[in-house]
Amino acid sequence: MFRNNFKIAYRSIWKDRVYSAINILGLALATAIFLLIIHYVRFEYSYENVHAKADNIYRVTLDLYNGGELVTTDCETYPQLGPTLQKDFPEVKNYARIEHVGHTEVKYNNKGFIIDRVYAADSQYFSIFNIDFTLGDKSRALTNPNETLLSETSAQKIFGTENPMGKVLKVGEYTLTVAGVFKDIPENTHLKFDLLIPFSIETKTDLNAKWQSNNNFTYAELVPGSSAETFNQKLYKLSRERTKDEIMVAGPIKDIHLYSKRAYEPEPAGNANTVKFLLIIAILILIIGAVNYVNLTTARSSERLKEAGIRKILGSSRTGLIRQFFLESLIINLLAFVLALTLVYTFAPFYLQLTGKALGTQLFNSYSFWITCALLFGLNCLLSGLQPAFILSSVKPVVVMNRSSGKGGAKGSALRRILVVGQFAVAVVVIAFTIVIYRQLQFMRQQDKGMNLEQILVINDLEDGKNDSIRVSIHNALRNDLLKVPGVENVSVNGSLPGVDKNYMNTTNNIRLSGGEKNSYTFSTYAVDANFVPLMKMQLLAGRNLRDNATNVREVLVNEETCRLLGFSSPEKAIGRNITYNIESTIVGVLKNYDQTSKKEAPLPMINYYNPRNGKYIAIKINTHQPGKIIEAAEKAWLAHSPGRAFDYFFLDQLYNQQYRADIQFGKIISIFSILTIFITCLGLLGLTAHNIARRTKEIGIRKVLGASVTGIVQLFAKDYVKLMLIAMVIGVPVAIWAGQKWLQDFALRASMPWWIFALAGMVTLVIALLTVSLQSVKAALVNPVDSLANGD
């Protein structure tokens, strides 16, 4: 029986191979897109699953207030907090602290290497988090203050094939012995590092001293079954005992990647809304593929109804007919799935590069991928096969005697219209959402940054522990050499720069106007020299720039936001006023707000102070179309003054734009999927139109004999679809507005969403749909009416 059913199914598919090809291609594209998106979504939701105790690990953070006003948040806390939690909180089983050191120069045998992700950690960190060691004793890791640990990649970078164990490294200002090598930290965890040093030597904090310098992340392992709510209530009480301006809050580490909007994260957080939107798009595209199959199959039901009726007269049961028609659907789905897997295999590298995710493992080596495939195949078969099978098997034998039954297609026409409207409503939403994303990105890029980042080459000077006077003399000599290079306009040495990670700035909430009360707002600070403002082409609103002389240590530059928070009604009012910042300092200039971070965040209150001894970034303003020659000259000058050290450089505008990388990637993904959504939808519309025209071939011939024009015939077929498109716009536009507003809420500065965005999305959808219909209609209208009447039903 199965063999006979298979032969019939094969012959039916081959007989209508054009429609079968449309169904297979539509299902394959929808399936491939779904598999790629769902793997990315699963990866985003898998963060912290690599740690066995993840459900019981909480990170303690700070909410910072000025009076009753929440002014900012901070992921970093105080080194005294960890021991306090274990001592006074029974539900805390263990704690761990880890502090961001940042990219650091590591020396071995007088050769320098740049290691990007360096942290200082407690030894008990390895008791809470799953870190796998390939060399060394995990139980003793970081218990010795003179030892360091490396990742496999860092060990390979520094030592090559040489055994790293016991080797001595110069890590910044510390001389440490390699005591272990751990496997590279998986991608799906929020805290990744390449080199670890002991927490005790980096912090140098007296745990009995006053709580200050909140620079480390604090993690608490709670006893299983403990109440997070009760834990937070105790943290609130502890916070109030210390200060009225800071509230400590604990949150599960599994929420960090997608839901954290806090400052000073160890890496840029993901976006739960982005992941949800992608998941919704994946499901909608999968449904569109199935809808195409259902639409085309039911539209052609008139041709199969007679077949079903005759088979019933000859003795077939309804169950047998369901089996037959479902087998055809199964074969089409199987062919579509094979094609889908081929597409996934072919385009997965491009897609993974586009998303910026390594995703930890190859798709086809993942058990979860194949489980998803099996479930998806079954779902596809049910979505696309059940409804046509039950409709076609429900025919009564008497219909074979009814001449009009062959003209059918009416049955299910209402359902087809509803499905077409749904498909194009989705298309309107996706196109409008794509326009909103690109409009927002363009809007942010066009905003005045308060500076010019173009053609600024930056050299990293990461060597710590050098005598301050020697460091200043090296920087001065290097600056003089660089200014002699053709194409170099200016050189500035600073403690940080716009676009550099926030962790490379200092913050303070201990600013006080002379004679005034303490201000609890958080201000960002870093050292600059007198060349910083002219090199960055920043605008002074009042006062003057810093000057290169010793008295500058008591002078600072502030921006507009700092003026506002300090209570000055205008920039001019701030000039000459003294503030307490480390030492009593005088405001000598007010800068127009400049974007230290991206436009996604509100302007930071900035304080720039003069300190040539604290320069870690050598910014070089160039004016040339051949930056390669200046890079070569800069490297030569660098090695002349710092022999044996690593020459590490970047262009400031490229670094700054990295802040928008996730949004740009998301925009590209959405635009690609919007095109594919339209394509899959139009593929189904193409099949429906082709079938409709084939069914009305004789009608077209008669109309032409009676004088109908090609335009009139095209309009005949297009008018029904115009109505459906208008309904789709009415449904899709409100959904698109909601989605756009939901996505834009993550931006401090937002572009507007004018009405023309949604009108354009609707018009694009309408034009594409009409072109699809018109291509088939024009072709049919140009056929000789004699042939149409001869070949029509």
Structure explained in plain terms:
The chain has 793 residues and is α+β, with helices and mostly antiparallel strands. Helices cover 50% and strands 18% of the residues. The chain contains 24 helices and 26 strands. Strands 1, 2, 3, 4, 5, 6, 7, 8, 9, 10, 11, 12 and 13 form a 13-stranded mixed β-sheet that branches. It is elongated.
Report the principal-axis shape: elongated
The poorly predicted ranges are: 403-411
What is the tally of helical segments? Answer: 24
The end-to-end distance, rounded to whole angstroms, is 34 Å
Structural class: alpha+beta
Question: Helix proportion of residues, in percent?
Answer: 40-55%
How much of the polypeptide forms β-strand, as a percent range? 15-25%
Q: Which features does this protein show?
A:
26 strands; 9-stranded mixed β-sheet; 13-stranded mixed β-sheet; single chain; 793 residues; 18% strand; 24 helices; alpha+beta
In short:
The protein is an alpha+beta fold. Helix content is 50%, strand content 18%.
What does the secondary structure layout of this molecule look like, with pairings?
Elements: H1 2-15, H2 17-45, E1 57-66, E2 69-74, H3 81-88, E3 92-100, E4 104-108, E5 111-115, E6 118-121, H4 125-128, E7 133-136, E8 147-151, H5 152-159, E9 168-171, E10 174-182, E11 195-198, H6 199-203, E12 216-222, H7 228-242, E13 246-252, H8 256-259, H9 272-299, H10 301-313, H11 318-355, H12 367-393, H13 413-446, E14 456-460, H14 468-483, E15 488-494, E16 506-508, E17 511-513, E18 518-519, E19 523-528, H15 532-536, E20 540-543, E21 555-559, H16 560-566, H17 571-574, E22 578-581, E23 583-591, E24 606-610, E25 617-622, H18 627-641, E26 649-651, H19 652-657, H20 661-695, H21 697-705, H22 710-744, H23 755-781, H24 785-791
Parallel strand pairs: 6-11, 8-10, 19-24, 21-23
Antiparallel strand pairs: 1-2, 1-12, 1-13, 3-6, 3-12, 4-5, 4-9, 7-10, 8-11, 9-10, 14-25, 14-26, 15-25, 16-19, 17-18, 17-22, 20-23, 21-24, 22-23
Helix pairs in contact: 1-11, 2-9, 2-11, 2-12, 2-20, 9-12, 9-13, 9-20, 10-12, 11-12, 13-20, 13-22, 13-23, 14-18, 20-23, 21-24, 22-23
